[in-house]
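A note from the maintainers: we've had questions about how concatenated examples are separated. There is no special marker in the raw files; a new sequence line simply starts the next protein. For clarity in this README we add a label.
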Amino acid sequence: MTKRKMLATMALTALLAAPALAEDYTIGLSNGWVGSEWRTQMIEEAQAAAAAWADQGVNIELVISSADMDVQGQINVVRNMINQGVDAIIINPNSPTAFDPIIAQAAGQGILVIATDAEVSSPDAYYVGIDQKGWAMQSAKWLAETLGGEGKVVAINGVAGHPANQMRVEGYQEVFKEYPGIEVVNEANANWDQAQGQQTMQTLLASNPDLDGVWVQDGMAAGAWRAIEAAGRDDIAATGEIRKDFLDTWEEKGYTTAASVNPPGVMASALNAAVLMLQGNEIDASKISGVYGNALYIPIPFISGENVEAARASAEGKPDYYSVTETVSVDDLKSAFFK
């Protein structure tokens, strides 16, 4: 055999041995908490993103688990997805650290794992979503500046122990430390529930009649604002919501409020990133950051009095529970994170 024929034979053998670029993927979506319409919208937007890939000749089958469960229950869901032989798993996790062993198991079987909305510590996973600490810092800075750097403030947080909630707490605490005149007089949890947010705000107002500001996470802000209004406290500044019903009331009543946006489209953005990785696109390592060294942070929109009208217009015709959203496009993901 001549050298030329030998090289040609070797090239053909390598080509035949190389895996074909798959255009059919099975992706698991694991959501371990369904206590808000935001989570429902998150799943719906991920489904829409999967369907959109069909226009590019990529067929995606989704295996969806969306239900209230403890950490062990969600680990079992991920294990079931591994056993089903999915190509990738996108998880909105109920713990930052507990999934490390099961994610390592998935990685050992060649399954891509991406966390979204809340970060995980596993070196075998990526995180695609907003920086939850940065989300909190952005709105906390707005509140501190709006109060002129002075005043008594309370904080109403989400689910205690949840990784996203903990990062948000760290974020506002760090910001308020930079303002010696800001005194955080109380902190409470209301589980990202509007009714609990309203009740908690009523209690905080009763015990702190000289309150100046409220840092409250979305999911509870509308309830907190109802309590503020019922108390006749139009002198209070407080963070707000990204839901359509709140935006309508905000514009109508002229609230002194602002909101960082954690878009429900984060899971859709993570799904788009997953498909790009499954297709063989390589992450630019210089774009990876985060406390665990595995995060691809997407932009955090911000709504204030300056752009609330545009935000409200983007939700026109949607149901009251609809949250202002954004999904990072395939092209934008490529330019932001891939080589």
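[label: protein 2]
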Amino acid sequence: MSAPPSKLDSLATYFGVDAIGDSPAEQKLQDMKRRKTKRRLWMVGGLIATYLLFYASLRLIEFSLAEIVGQVDQFYEALLGYFPPTTYFGIPFVDLGAYLSFIVEENLILTVEGGEIVWGAMFVTMAVAFAGTVLGLPLALFFGVMSSERVIPYPFNFGFRATMSLIRAIPGLVWFLILIPLAGVTPFTGALAIMVDTTGYLGRLFTDELEEIEDGPIEGIRSTGANSSQIVSFGMLSQVFRQFIAWIAFDLEHNVRAAIGLGIIGAGGLGLELYVQRQTFNYTEMMACIILIFLLAGSVELISQRVRSALREDDDIEQSGIIEVFVNAPRKILSSTVGRR
């Protein structure tokens, strides 16, 4: 008794092929098997390579669980400094007064001397971030527009893209060190470093947005006989106005955090105060600085989110001028916040 025909034999009979090895179905199945085997090999190879890189990284940084366990007692003592214990109405709690007294004594927020307001480290950090963002915005807009193939055809736009890539390749901390001979170890140098950093990152985001715009408005503006600058202004930038404002708000969040990092290496503000307290092992004072950093960064992030939310919900922004948009922004942010509550 002969064996029943296999599925492949049935397919071969259906396609009218005598030799199953020559059938298209067999070839397709073999190709699928090869691709599947190749994917598995790549996956296994990728996992092995990742493990080897991870193991080499741990060896290079001298990672040791035994060292961590040995430092647990010292870390616990530091935690008691970060969170000094006290009692409120007989209930154990963190001594918030220790934080507040340090903030007031060091004038980290603001103080009044001789009838004049003296801004503290927290506002210095905010000033560095805001000034650097505003200074870098025109350059970011220029490089962002000139890097778009819709404005400057390839390869002539490559120079602008390469410049932004070079800027992004160098961290903001390094830009600060590079610019020290120009303006010294000051908050102003920190603002200049953030300006350069903003040019690279925000400019790239602007370019990406311009690459995604619709062709219809551009052709409509061009058909009216508009020149190149009018096409860019009314046919291109008008389509990405909301996105640009949203990215500017997001970049300001990033720059506030960058200003804190720059302060640690000399740019002033909360970062410098945090570094000084770390050098003297004043953990309670360090935590007070960290609390202010959290409040500052969190407040800027909240405002940025409200701005982006207001831009998404406003349908009439294209009909409004830039001045009207910024004048009405606080009201829209407030109404959006109250509405969500």
